[in-house]
Specification:
The protein has three domains: 220 residues, no CATH class; 160 residues, 3-Layer(aba) Sandwich (Rossmann fold), CATH 3.40.50; 116 residues, 2-Layer Sandwich (GMP Synthetase, Chain A, domain 3). The strands form four sheets. Strands 4-3-5-6-7-8-9-13-12-11-10 form an eleven-stranded mixed beta sheet, sandwiched between helices. Strands 18-17-16-19 form a four-stranded mixed beta sheet, with helices on one face. The chain is built from 21 helices and 19 strands. The chain is 41% helix and 22% strand. By secondary structure, the chain is an alpha/beta fold. Helix 1 packs parallel to helix 4, helix 4 crosses helix 5 and helix 15 packs across helix 16. The N and C termini lie far apart (57 Å). Strand 5, helix 11 and strand 6 form a beta-alpha-beta unit.
Length: 515
């Protein structure tokens, strides 16, 4: 029945229905908590096929891309053809190979809209062009998520945008969109202004601070004399992953009941691909409690961040990267977007699950916990698919075949009270000595007023090595065979040039790249 309904529903009719649903967040909530998940999946596939043909017809660069890959678009009439014949695209084979104009609809830049810039985590920033029409769908999605996650319709919020100002997508879009649903102040990364704002408007209001994780952590820790627990303060973060230990640590700094919510997106595709819901966070905690299950599902023992996403906005597929790591490709379903994104690979490590598939796994392994959660909140669980993300693919280093992830280093530091109190930020680096032997270096910037020393170096080494050996079986195997892979700890005073150079972007750049 669902298949028949999807087959007979034209994409244009489906999109009008979507706009009607999204026009009211209460209506959208009712729909997404009752709709059959498979209907959304099938409509997503149908829209992906439509987006492909729209790109072929209206985007010259994409047509050239297909020609170069010897793809006859006329053969792509069904989703199985799409999956079989349409090549993956990414920054290397598509974005860098065709001009900005050729990648835009109609072969020209839009008359209205904005140009933003990727965070440059990989070292080279890229510009992304957006048509003004794109904001309509994105605004409604943000309005829904704000109401669903933070109860935004019922609570009046003063929203503080503490993302870095400039051409970067998050700061620009966050302010543009949130001012339609709340009262927003754009402080950027001016900590003094944020603190003055909180003092000025007082503790009787509801606040939401949006910022990159390292900034918000430093803001709260460096103003420890401020009565954080008296303020109704919630946090929304993004741009990089956070560990569960980070979330628990930050919660202890805030008023009981404070919400800390992460979002997933990328300038390449959309800043709002996935968002953390109470249910997805619950699943993340369950996965984190069973390392063998994580190993079975993801090929590694640590749990990913878990988001839910709207399949009517993004069609996501599982693929494998060049090194066999699980990755995913995204097709942007908004045909008003200036830049088409068809089967686009961010090269982030992770895996998508349909709603029904992941629920089946959770019920099989965590039946009682799942039933308990559903009995309390089942009426409000969104029937949306899941996107499990480990992090940016350029945030990993490989040593003798063992991948080391920045969040594993963070996990060890955050679990140790002494080290979490002295660490500002860190970087990892792969170096070679004079004999070309590989070395694993961890560079740690101390918080203001703290100094390093041999005793502290040994403490970092002990804690981090224990964490890696305990939770990274591949590294445990590698270091047991090659003890020289034991990390070299390097401590730096606050605002050392190695770290200070990153301040303009606020995002931590975790990997030192050697050219």
């Amino acid at each position: 029945m669902l298949g028949i309904l999807c087959a007979i529903t034209p994409v244009s009719v489906g999109e009008r229905f979507e706009r009607f649903i999204l026009a009211d967040s209460v209506r959208a909530r009712r729909f997404l908590t009752h709709v059959h998940p498979e209907f959304l999946e099938q409509m997503s596939a149908k829209k992906a096929l439509n987006s492909f043909h729209q790109a072929v017809e209206h985007t010259p660069g994409y047509a050239l891309f297909l020609k170069k890959n010897k793809v006859d678009s006329a053969r792509v009439t069904k989703i199985v053809d799409f999956l079989r014949f349409v090549p993956y695209s990414d920054k290397e084979n598509y974005i860098k190979s065709y001009s900005y104009e050729s990648r835009c609809i109609g072969g020209k830049l839009p008359n209205r809209g904005n140009i933003d810039e990727s965070g440059g985590t990989s070292g080279i920033a890229t510009n992304w062009i957006h048509d003004l029409g794109e904001e309509t769908v994105l605004l409604k999605a943000v309005e829904f998520e704000f109401d669903y996650v933070f109860d935004g319709k019922r609570k009046d919020y003063v929203v503080i945008s503490a993302w870095s100002s400039g051409p970067w997508a998050t700061g620009v879009k966050f302010c543009e969109l949130m001012e339609h649903v709340a009262l927003v102040k754009n402080t950027s990364t001016d900590a003094k202004d944020i603190m003055n704002t909180l003092r000025m408007f007082g503790s009787s209001r509801n606040y939401l601070i949006g910022a990159y994780p390292p900034f918000i952590k430093n803001l709260i820790e460096e103003n420890s004399d401020f009565p954080w627990k008296k303020y109704n303060l919630d946090l929304v973060t993004g741009g990089e992953g956070v560990t569960l230990d980070w979330v628990y640590y930050m919660r202890r700094k805030l008023k009981p009941g404070a919400k800390i919510v992460s979002s997933y997106g990328a300038s390449d595709v959309d800043i709002g691909v996935g968002f953390e819901t109470p249910f997805s966070f619950f699943i993340r905690e369950l996965l984190n409690s069973d390392r063998s299950l994580c190993r079975q599902i993801f090929g590694r023992e640590d749990a990913p961040m878990v988001f839910q996403y709207n399949p009517l906005m993004h069609y996501i597929e599982n693929v494998y990267g060049p090194e066999g790591k699980p990755e995913f490709v995204i097709t942007l379903l908004d045909t008003k977007a200036a830049l088409s994104k068809i089967r686009y690979n961010l090269h982030d490590e992770g895996r998508r699950f349909s709603y029904l598939d992941l629920i089946e796994v959770i019920r099989m392994y965590f039946g009682s916990q799942y039933e308990s959660f559903v009995s309390r909140y089942g009426y409000d669980i969104l029937h949306l698919p899941f996107l499990c993300v480990f992090g940016r693919s350029d945030g990993t280093l490989s040593f003798d075949g063992a991948n080391v992830f920045p969040h594993q280093i963070e996990h060890g530091i955050m679990r140790n009270k002494e080290l979490s109190g002295t660490t500002s930020r860190f970087k990892i680096e792969k170096k070679y000595d004079s004999k070309h032997n590989v070395e694993f270096h961890i560079h740690v910037e101390m918080k203001k007023g703290h100094k390093g020393g041999d005793i502290l170096k040994k403490k970092y080494l002990k804690v981090i090595l224990e964490e890696l050996v305990e939770n990274n079986p591949d590294f445990k195997e590698s270091v047991s065979k090659n003890p020289s892979l034991s990390p070299h700890i390097n401590l730096y005073l606050f605002e050392h040039p190695l770290f200070h150079q990153d301040d303009i972007k606020v995002k931590n750049i975790y990997v030192v790249k050697n050219t």
